[in-house]
């Protein structure tokens, strides 16, 4: 009996050890990726429902791993958040996104607002200054940058977070609330956030139009956005039925595979040219 117990403990700690080794392997790899240029951004167009035109894009990070190929963010962002490395990843992403926006504008492409995801760990007192310096470095007007912030970010130390958001908004940079409805933000705080857009999470879009609860939640988010004079965008739109429901519900914008997957920079540029021609 004691032996079984001992075996169990040994097995468990070996398991933990493997988990830690895997984490350290990814962390070392990610540091290397940052200094070695293995990260890249894809751009997913955002469409205005009324006009059918591309009015923005979300920058989404990928890791071009020498052995594993293109690694999605779900496989390294959570770990980067746990270790704090996400701060460096975030600096790189903001820098790249602004550099790309400048290249597109210089190439004569109609300007669109480029959204960057910001995680809670990056949401510190130094963020507004960093955003401002980066915009200046690329000669980019603040109206072309948007930061997507998740509800969970807002829940740590709410007064401090509102202060940082106010500084960012004062720069003229747009803020949107990502994955809205999946966190625990109290509606009473919502009116105090200087945000422009609520983003309906894919976990709700997915059930439209068959799941009555998801439809009710989507409608509620749209109506909250309208009452608070915010715009509202639905992510993860994959079907014409979802689009039709969202259109009739008064949703402003959509993003999803129905229109486009996240694209490499060149492919996004091509999509923008067709957008103008359309
Ligand atoms: P998110 O911010 O909610 O981004 C939306 C995710 O949904 C993206 O996955 C996008 O490719 C995917 N998506 C868009 N339309 C559809 C659709 O119609 N169907 C389906 N099935 N998926 C769709 P991705 O690129 O794998 O990113 C996953 C998450 O990783 C993001 O979720 C975000 O939380 C995080 N992430 C991505 N890039 C960054 C970044 O630069 N910084 C930070 N901090 N997080 C990032
Ligand atoms: Ca996002
Ligand atoms: Ca989202
Ligand atoms: Ca989401």
In short:
It comes from Duganella fentianensis. The chain is of the alpha/beta class. Helix content is 50%, strand content 19%.
**Strand tally, please?**
9
- Order of strands side by side in the largest beta sheet? 1-2-4-5-6-7-8-9
Q: SSE order, as H and E?
A: HEEEHHEHEHHEHEHHEHEH
Sheet having the most strands: 8 strands, mixed, barrel
User: Uncertain segments of ≥5 residues (pLDDT<50)?
Assistant: 1-6
Distance between the termini: 74 Å
Rg (CA only): 21 Å
Measured by DSSP, the beta-strand proportion falls in: 15-25%
Protein name: EAL domain-containing protein
Organism: Duganella fentianensis
Would you mind describing this structure in some detail?
It comes from Duganella fentianensis. The chain is an alpha/beta fold and 278 residues long. The chain contains eleven helices and nine strands. It has helices at residues 2-36, 77-83, 86-106, 127-137, 151-155, 158-171, 187-190, 202-205, 212-227, 240-249, 265-277, and strands spanning 39-48, 54-65, 69-71, 113-118, 145-150, 174-180, 197-200, 231-234, 253-254. It has an eight-stranded mixed beta barrel with strand order 1-2-4-5-6-7-8-9, surrounded by five helices. Helix 3 runs parallel beside helix 4 (127-137) and helix 4 runs parallel beside helix 6 (158-171). It starts with a helix and ends with a helix. The model is unreliable at 1-6 (pLDDT under 50). One calcium ion binds next to loops.
């Amino acid at each position: 009996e004691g032996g079984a117990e001992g075996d169990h403990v040994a097995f468990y700690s070996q398991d933990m050890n493997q988990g830690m080794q895997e984490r350290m392997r990814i962390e070392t790899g990610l540091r290397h990726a940052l200094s070695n240029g293995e990260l890249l951004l894809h751009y997913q167009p955002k469409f205005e429902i009324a006009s059918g035109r591309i009015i923005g894009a979300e920058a989404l990070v990928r890791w071009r791993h020498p052995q594993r190929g293109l690694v999605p963010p779900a496989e390294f962002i959570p770990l980067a958040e746990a270790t704090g490395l996400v701060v460096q990843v975030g600096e790189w992403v903001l820098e790249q996104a602004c550099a790309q926006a400048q290249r597109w504008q210089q190439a004569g492409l109609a300007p669109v607002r480029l959204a960057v995801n910001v995680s809670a760990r990056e949401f510190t007192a130094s963020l507004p200054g960093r955003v401002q310096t980066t915009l200046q470095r690329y000669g980019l007007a603040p109206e072309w940058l948007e930061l997507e912030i998740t509800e969970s970010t807002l829940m740590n130390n709410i007064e401090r977070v509102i202060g940082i958001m106010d500084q960012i908004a004062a720069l003229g940079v747009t803020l949107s609330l990502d994955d809205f409805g999946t966190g625990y933000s109290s509606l009473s705080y919502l009116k105090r956030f200087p945000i422009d857009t609520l983003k309906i999470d894919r976990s709700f879009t997915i059930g439209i139009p068959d799941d009555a609860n998801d439809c009710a939640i989507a409608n509620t988010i749209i109506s909250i956005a309208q009452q608070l004079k915010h715009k509202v965008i639905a992510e993860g739109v994959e079907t014409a039925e979802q689009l039709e429901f969202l259109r009739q519900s008064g949703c402003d914008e959509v993003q999803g595979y129905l229109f486009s997957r996240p694209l490499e920079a060149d492919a996004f540029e091509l999509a923008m040219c067709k957008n103008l021609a359309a």
